[in-house]
Each structure stands twice: as structure tokens, then as C-alpha cells.
């Protein structure tokens, strides 16, 4: 949620990606995600987009 990096599955679906390609992209994105969100870190900078902008 608080990452500055994103993977757009919507764009992949619109481009005709297969279920397997979508699943593989999701898995790659999940493994790149840092453990925790870092919100308590003094250097934390919240992304400027709203939750609805990322599909929430």
C-alpha cells in the first residue's frame, strides 16, 4: 500500500495477458515487496496517491 513501486495488472489484462502471465507478475511483485511498511520510520514518506487510485 505504501510502496512507491507498482505493478499494473490492469494494464496487462487490457493488453491480453494470460492468467499465467498475470500470476507470474503478481508473484514477482510480491517477492520484491519489503517486509513491513516502514510507517514508523522517521524517513517514511507516504505516497501522494489515494487508496482508490491503486484500486482499493
Task: Give an overview in words.
By secondary structure, the protein is an all-alpha fold. The longest helix is centred in the middle third of the chain and has 14 residues. The chain has one domain. Helix content is 36%, strand content 0%. The model has no long low-confidence stretch (mean pLDDT 83). The radius of gyration is 13 Å and the shape is elongated. The N and C termini lie close together (9 Å).
Count up the domains. 1
Average pLDDT number: 83
Task: Please tally the helical runs, counting DSSP H or I stretches of 4 or more residues.
Answer: 2
The N- to C-terminal Cα distance equals: 9 Å
Question: Which key features would you list for this structure?
Answer:
36% helix; 56 residues; 2 helices
Write the layout of secondary structure elements.
Elements (H helix, E strand, L loop, with lengths): L8 H6 L4 H14 L24
Brief overview:
The protein is an all-alpha fold and 56 residues long. The chain contains two helices and no strands.
